[in-house]
Write a structure and sequence with these properties.
The structure holds three protein chains of three kinds. By secondary structure, chain A is an all-alpha fold. Helix content of chain A is about 75%, strand content about 0%. Chain A contains 14 helices and no strands. Classes of the chains: A mainly alpha, B mainly alpha, C alpha/beta.
């Protein structure tokens, strides 16, 4: 009985603790969720049209690097603002270009889609590591600078209830701030527009789409490239909005957590966003525990958990959630199946 | 004479695309090296790739030491390649070799150091087994999850790789840190080290790895378990229909795959590294994937592919020292090799060859289980 | 009276596939305005290829297509649609998760502001069209909620929505009940009356004679004759189609049913989406008896069969074979008890295509002696596997270059014979056949039917499931009708008339 009582008390304390730290945590959660959400959107757009892309991690990394490189190279000449803006643009372009490569491999060449993605990840690791060692490390200079996040006026931020929510979405840099709008726009586009209808048709039953005159290949190219541009934006966020520096392999599995968020969100933009927030929360927990430990027994327990475990939490949670969610959500029927026009040519 | 020629033709059929893919990868990487030479202190240099590749070759094959370095570097790649290749056979993509390798290395370091003063015939085998078992256990997790819940191994194994790095760092810091060192690490392995057979560093793990190639080949080709693994990889539905249990086979294969990866970690630990410390990086993870693909997931093919990539890894440091071309160029070459294997039509166009398509047909199962189905367009 | 040119003319159309088969060999075909023209031929004769060429899905090697007398090039389906050609494919080209309206407008969407879908307007137009054709369809329903017959109507709506003047229907009756077939014929006649032209592809003689104005027969990629229903007989058409005199009836003697072998009671099972597909089903089968299950596809037949063989776990009820409940045992155990199974989809279940014929012939007994032995009983014995293959290939007339040839290289008929050879063992109690002859040529069908009768006469209890009502009626000693997961009627062979069985298939009778 005593054990149960203690347990109930601990859970209660945990709840109280979470509710008290949550308002301060919200902006951090969104910032942590942004690259995951953008990566997940890349996954949604790809897989809705029937192309599996496990190279999101690599695309993010490449875009992060080249965005950073741009900012780094032009920082002194142009000043921080324009160089960062140009860096973001380059990152998005790099993402789109890699999207062209992935689309070519998966749609035109009909290479195995999982292998194509793996190639992307290895290539990104190699190219960025190579150029990092060759170009950035020897220069010994500082970073590319970083965007200063926006701050809401205190009167608004201090509003009860609404305040923290607004802070969550607006005390951010431009990429994180625009995320919500991107998510909503894509949700509407996917389910309410001609492009969305054709995308879904191509991902579910490409031959049916073909027989009503839809160019399956074109539709898939379009989606893969657009999706990968979002992965590029995620990369830009990492180097230019979040950290202001580049380290080898800095994506650290985010591209794969993004895929888990996509599955969790049942291949919808809003669902994927929710998934990303969930994983963002898990990561944020590790951050906040180090700073604000609760009182009493709970604090003792939380302090006794080594920081490495908190750091591993998002990864472990991804596994657990994936194991719980898969099988209960159905992917697009033609996901991962290259479309072959028989008897052509 | 005629027989010899037909054998040669058959070999060319199998090996031409992989070999030409490597050649093409080196050519494209050379272009990258030339372009990027603008950023170096020596400036733009058209001949840089020649110098770089020459020292790469010298570092890999140029001397007795170089050759033994190549073999030493190849050993974990043979086992890692087998781990990935075995997974492919069952329609599984084990990207978790890096994590399983680390867990295996850690376990054999811990067991090895605690038996450091026992006689080698006792401590060494136990340490090897510990690494293999730890790797197997770590491979079992994603295998079980895939079999039971459908959680795809491509995501779960990557997550486990990341978690392994963090949790092993914690373990070395808080659980098994050896006293008397300025940084967290495990104790000396002493007598548990793999015996050196030849020269300075050719250790027992190398013949062990080669032996494993033939063991895996025998299991796959000659036994009912191998038949079950291959059937599940080719057609999981037919496997069920034939009375096999794909759920069990999936978990088993992933466990065996983890075992091989753990074994790779064990021989690297007991034959080369000697102690576990945070920051041990495992390029073995990606390398193994490239090796398995290049070897078409066939054990013998994997053996040759591993020796090749072992040579790259062994020669790269010399290349970087002598020509300041970063060793990461090997990763680029690796990615290019995979690219040209996946898009083999590039190789065909460039070299005008006609040869069998280097497909691993079980890969289709990997993608299908990711997406959960076949297209309704193909009812057949 | 100057004769108007035919609506459609195909001249010298030739297509050779990369595999070497000559699917169409200089085919000539013409279609007049307001005509129903039947294209008759057995499976694999080249009918579908010809129509796929017309619809721009397949590029011909040679030949010409004329519409209203004008030569045209049809590069892709968009071209075909623009020329007024509509096609109802044998395997429906509908996206299951989309609504009727979304499916109909797909590719020719009604949009506002350039991109935003106007599904309301789409629904209005579809209702109007449906009314004209006499269909009762709700445009907002998801297509996977519709019956097969309704899905076919959506396909016709799709074509009419695109203003098709030439409508091609590929084996449209294959999945329908006799009643639904009659209804679809009504629709076709109505379309004809309004001036549309129809190409009707079939291998069923009676239907062709009933609906067509003209019949063109295709065999092995060539036109072998053209007839009108008035000047030919079923026998003549059959001979043209197959190339030799064929008996359309299956030769079989009386059955002598013995003891009850299979006893299914209260069986319940769910489909892959978790819906209950078998709902308390009862049936028995005796030794030496063929029990046929008729029913429209998707009424729980697949789930029933999978529950019998062990590929699906029933949620309730029992399956007794020779008195023992096997409903919770593994596939392996059931095979040991003398149950064998020919699956509907040989590529998905019955065969491992990259494997050799020999490995496929031992696929279900790979772990038993003498196929395996040695160390721990896990070493495969290639010698006996090969011997077994040679013996079965001889006995079942499997035409393969060698037992080591991959199954993928065999023709469909020979692939099915591999499955049959493996499953039709001599020590069986129960044989479950799911669409055993789907998509095969007449020769292979005859061969397999003979083998089925032979096993029956050896005293095996046989359960035959088929969407082809004719096959069920031809082979069965007793016909059961399955409807929405239940057996709703039983007929002895002599009382099982097409119409009676068909009506029950469509309505489920009083128990629906």
């Amino acid at each position: 009985m005593e054990v149960v009582g203690t347990l109930v008390r601990l859970i209660w304390e945990l709840g109280v603790y979470l509710v008290t730290v949550l308002p301060d945590l919200l902006p951090i959660i969104l910032a942590l969720a942004t690259p995951l959400a953008l990566g997940a959107l890349c996954g949604v757009l790809n897989e809705r049209s029937g192309v599996v892309n496990i190279g999101i991690e690599g695309i993010m990394l490449m875009a992060a690097f080249f965005g950073y490189l741009t900012g780094f190279a032009l920082h002194d000449a142009m000043g921080s603002g324009p160089s960062i803006a140009l860096g973001i643009l380059i990152a998005v372009l790099v993402g789109a270009l890699l999207g062209v490569l992935h689309a070519w491999l998966t749609v035109s060449v009909r290479a195995d889609q999982i292998i194509a993605g793996t190639m992307m990840n290895i290539a990104a690791f190699g190219v960025t590591g190579y150029l990092n060692r060759l170009v950035i490390t020897p220069s010994g200079r500082g970073g590319a600078g970083v965007i200063t996040p926006f701050h809401l006026p205190d009167q608004i931020a201090n509003l009860p209830l609404v305040g923290p929510i607004l802070v969550m979405f607006f005390d951010q840099g431009p990429i994180a701030m625009s995320l919500v709008f991107i998510v909503i726009a894509l949700q509407l586009a996917l389910f309410r527009t001609r492009w969305g209808l054709r995308t879904r048709a191509v991902g579910e039953h490409p031959k049916a789409a073909d027989t009503v005159g839809i160019d399956v290949y074109r539709q898939r190219y379009l989606n893969v490239i657009l999706g990968c541009a979002f992965a590029g934006l995620a990369g830009a966020f990492l180097t230019l909005e979040s950290t202001g520096s580049f380290q080898n392999g800095m994506t650290n599995g985010r591209g794969f957590i993004a895929l888990a968020a996509m599955i969790f969100g049942r291949w919808t933009p809003i669902g994927a966003f929710a998934g990303a927030l969930l994983f963002g929360t898990a990561t944020a927990l590790g951050v906040v525990v180090a700073v604000r430990v609760p009182e009493g027994d709970l604090g003792g327990i939380m302090r006794s958990i080594p920081s490495y475990w908190y750091a591993a939490l998002p990864y472990l949670m991804t596994i657990v959630i994936l194991a719980g969610v898969v099988g209960r959500s159905t992917p697009p029927a033609a996901d991962g199946v290259p479309y072959v026009k028989e008897g052509k040519g | 004479m005629i027989r010899l020629r037909s054998v040669a033709r058959e070999l060319w059929q199998v090996a031409s695309i992989p070999l030409l893919a490597i050649v093409l990868a080196f050519i494209v990487a050379a272009v990258v090296v030339v372009i990027s030479s603008t950023f170096t202190s020596t400036g733009f240099d058209v001949f840089l790739p020649f110098g770089a590749y020459a020292s790469l070759l010298a570092g890999a094959f140029g001397s007795g030491t170089a050759l033994s370095n190549t073999l030493v570097a190849a050993a974990p790649l043979i086992l890692g390649g087998l781990a990935v290749g075995l997974g492919f056979k069952a329609g599984l993509f084990n990207i978790g070799v890096a994590g399983q390798f680390l867990v295996g290395a850690f376990a054999s370091a811990v067991v090895g150091s605690s038996l450091a003063t026992s006689p080698t015939p006792v401590g060494m085998p136990l340490a090897v087994v510990a690494g293999a078992v730890a790797g197997a256990a770590f491979g079992f997790i994603p295998g079980f999850l895939k079999a039971r819940t459908g959680a795809h191994e491509v995501v779960t194994t990557i997550m486990l790789n990341n978690a392994a790095v963090l949790l092993l760092t914690w373990a070395v810091n808080d659980l098994v840190r050896a006293p008397g060192f300025s940084f967290p690490r495990t104790g000396d392995i002493g007598n548990s080290a793999l015996p050196i057979l030849l020269g300075r560093n050719v250790h027992l793990g190398i013949p062990l790895a080669v032996l494993t190639v033939f063991a895996v080949r025998w299991v796959l080709d000659r036994t009912t378990i191998g038949f079950e693994i291959r059937t599940v990889g080719q057609n999981p539905n037919a496997a069920r229909y034939a009375g096999m249990r794909p759920v069990f086979i999936t978990a088993l294969t992933m466990t065996l795959s983890g075992l091989l990866a753990g074994l790779a970690g064990a021989i690297q630990m007991l034959g080369v590294i000697g102690f576990y410390a945070p920051g041990i990086t495992a390029s073995v993870g990606f390398d193994s994937i490239a090796v398995a693909l290049l070897g078409r997931s066939d054990p013998i093919g994997i053996l040759f592919a591993a020796i090749l990539f072992g040579a790259f890894r062994a020669g790269a440091p010399l290349m970087q020292i002598e020509t300041s071309v970063p060793i990461e160029v090997i990763d680029i070459i690796q990615a290019l090799v995979i690219l040209f294997l996946a898009a083999d039509l590039i190789v065909r166009r460039v070299f005008r060859v006609r040869a069998a398509k280097p497909v691993i047909s079980e890969l289709a199962t990997v993608t299908q289980t990711w997406a959960g189905g076949t297209s309704p367009a193909e009812p057949s | 009276m100057s004769e108007a040119p035919p609506v459609l003319e195909m001249r010298g159309v030739t297509k050779r596939f990369p595999t070497g088969t000559l699917a169409n060999d200089a085919i000539d075909l013409d279609l007049r305005r307001g005509e129903i023209h039947a294209l008759l031929g057995e499976n694999g004769a080249g009918k579908s290829t010809l129509m796929n060429i017309l619809y721009g899905l397949v590029t011909p090697d040679a030949g010409q297509i004329l519409i209203d007398g004008q030569p045209v090039t049809i590069r892709d389906p968009a071209d075909a649609i623009a020329r007024g050609i509509g096609m109802v494919h044998q395997h429906f080209m509908l996206v299951p998760v989309l609504s009727v309206a979304e499916n109909v407008v797909l590719g020719q969407e009604i949009v506002r502001a350039g991109q935003v879908l106007d599904l309301g307007e789409a629904a209005n137009r579809i209702r109007l069209l449906a009314k004209k054709l006499g269909f009762d369809i709700d445009p907002s329903t998801r297509v996977d909620q519709l019956s097969v017959g309704q899905q076919q109507r959506v396909e016709i709506l799709k074509a009419i929505y695109r203003n098709a003047r030439i409508l091609v229907l590929d084996e449209p009756t294959a999945v329908l009940t006799p009643q639904e077939t009659r209804e679809i014929f009504e629709v076709l006649r109505r379309l004809r009356a309004e001036g549309a032209s129809v190409i009707f592809i079939s291998h069923k003689l009676d239907e062709v004679l009933e609906i067509a104005d003209r019949i063109t027969v295709i065999r092995r990629g060539r036109v072998v004759g053209s007839r009108t229903p008035a000047n030919c007989t079923e026998g003549e058409l059959a001979e043209l189609m197959v190339g030799r005199a064929v008996s359309l009836r299956v030769e079989r003697g009386r059955s002598h049913p013995g003891a009850v072998v299979l006893e299914v009671s209260g069986l319940r099972a769910k489909d892959d989406r978790g819906q209950e597909a078998v709902r308390g089903l009862e049936l028995t089968a005796r030794a030496g008896e063929i029990v046929g299950i008729a029913g429209v596809a998707g009424n729980g037949q697949g789930e029933l069969v999978e529950s019998l063989i062990g590929l699906r776990r029933p949620t309730a009820g029992s399956v007794r074979v020779a008195g023992r409940d096997i409903s919770r045992t593994s596939v392996d155990e059931r095979r040991d008890r003398g149950i064998a199974f020919v699956p509907a989809d040989r590529h998905r279940f019955g065969l491992v295509l990259p494997y050799s014929v020999a490995d496929n012939l031992a696929l279900t007994r790979y772990a038993e002696p003498p196929f395996a032995g040695g160390f721990a009983g896990i070493v495969r014995n290639f010698h006996t596997i090969l011997e077994n293959a040679l013996r079965l290939m001889e006995e079942f007339d499997v035409r393969a270059p060698a037992p080591t040839a991959p199954a993928a290289t065999l023709s469909g008929g020979n692939q099915q014979k591999v499955v049959v050879a493996r499953e039709f063992r001599h020590d069986l109690k129960l044989l479950v056949l799911d669409q055993p002859t789907r998509g095969l040529d007449v020769g292979s069908i005859e061969f397999i039917h003979k083998q089925v009768i032979a096993r029956r006469d050896e005293g095996v209890a046989i359960l035959l499931v088929s969407a082809e009502l004719d096959e069920v009626l031809d082979l069965s000693d007793r016909v059961l009708v399955m409807f929405r997961g239940l057996v709703v009627g039983t007929f002895p062979a002599e009382e099982a008339q097409r119409e009676k069985v068909g009506l029950l298939m469509a309505t489920g009778g009083s128990r629906a």
